[in-house]
Amino acid sequence: MFTRSLSRPLLATLFATLLVVGVAACGDDDDAQATGDGGTTTTADDSGGQYGDTTSDGDADAAEGAIVAVDFKLSDTTVAPGAEIVLQNDGDTKHTATSDEDGLFDLEADGGSTSDPGTAPDEPGDYTFHCEIHSSMTATLTVEG
Is the pTM above the cut of 0.85? Predict the structure, then answer.
């Protein structure tokens, strides 16, 4: 039987290399678990303005009255009763923002686009919604006014 021993410096270098490769391969995978907590909340008022740029938590520009979809997450959004709402898809994958209560709103946008406008409910309250394509994507539309 042929045996060959590796020198300690060579073994240490091999171990360090494997450790670095292993840690890099175990990086954060945001797509593994989608949640409604996208770290973004957008707000719209009833001033009648068209989709002006607003900043959501300092992370990204969001259109006023927009539900934002990115990285398999949907933003919680606050609007006035009856406000115009859209799905602003900042990702690459098609998504929807579909009310959990039938018929309230159903917005759809391909990656990198914005949906046709819809209308928020007239009654103040919290309305949960989800992506019809990716059921683990959920968030809340808050109607205040």
Answer: no
